[in-house]
Amino acid sequence: MAKTYPYMLDSLPYAFDALEPVIDQETMMIHHDKHHQAYVDNLNKSMEANPSLQAKTLDELFSSDIPVVKNNAGGVWNHDFFWDEMVTPGSSQMGENLKVEIEKNFVSVDEFKAKFETSALTRFGSGWAWLVMNKDGGLEIMSTANQDNPMVDGFKPLLAIDVWEHAYYLKYKNKRADYVKAWWEVVNWDVVESRMK
Ligand code: MN3
Q: Are 127 and 156 in contact (CB under 8 A)?
């Protein structure tokens, strides 16, 4: 993930229809080819306007005080992270190591999911809900506005759900809760566990 300028949009690691029926093909095409592409293009433009930032890595730009830099750097990184953690519905089960950590921090997998869903549903407007690891190795749930990223505050992201309307509106309309509940089916738990290391 140590990308630098000039930024390129990576292909999805699966077909546009791979997450059907949880996330429909049209949503994936627009989300990746239009929204994610726009973050890449706008980040490159902001780098052209700020040459002194061109040598920085993507995550170093999250704390920029130039809003267009911070927002688009987050947009690029957060979407790469989101695509990588999803897989064909129902094809991934939470492994024992991750389950033990989740239970240690949230009592049960069900309680973890309920808290994560609440975080996703109470994020007002556009943003993300996250499972993160803190500096002591504990797991926490949080949400961020817009394209903000928890790494700015020293957290290590493990899992994130995009709750911008562009992530779900075509299929789920205003029903963010239905999207969030269905989304568990496409989480690739092996990827989440690998991010703990
Ligand atoms: Mn998005």
A: no
Tell how far the Cα of 96 is from the centroid of ligand 1, in angstroms: 30
Domains of the chain, earliest start first: 25-84 (1.10.287.990), 96-195 (3.55.40.20)
Cis before 21? omega within 30? yes
Tell me, in angstroms, the distance from the centre of ligand 1 to residue 88's CA: 19
Residue 162 Cα to ligand 1 midpoint, Å, equals: 6
**Whole-model pTM above 0.90?**
yes
pLDDT digits 0-9 by tens, 145-181: 999 999 999 999 999 999 999 999 999 999 999 999 9
Q: Please tell me the distance between residue 42's alpha carbon and the centre of ligand 1 in angstroms.
A: 15
> Which helix (H) or strand (E) segment is 72 a member of?
helix 67-84
Q: What percent of the chain has pLDDT over 70?
A: 99
| CA of residue 79 to ligand 1 center, whole Å | 6
Asked whether the bond before 6 is cis by omega within 30 degrees of 0, the reply is yes
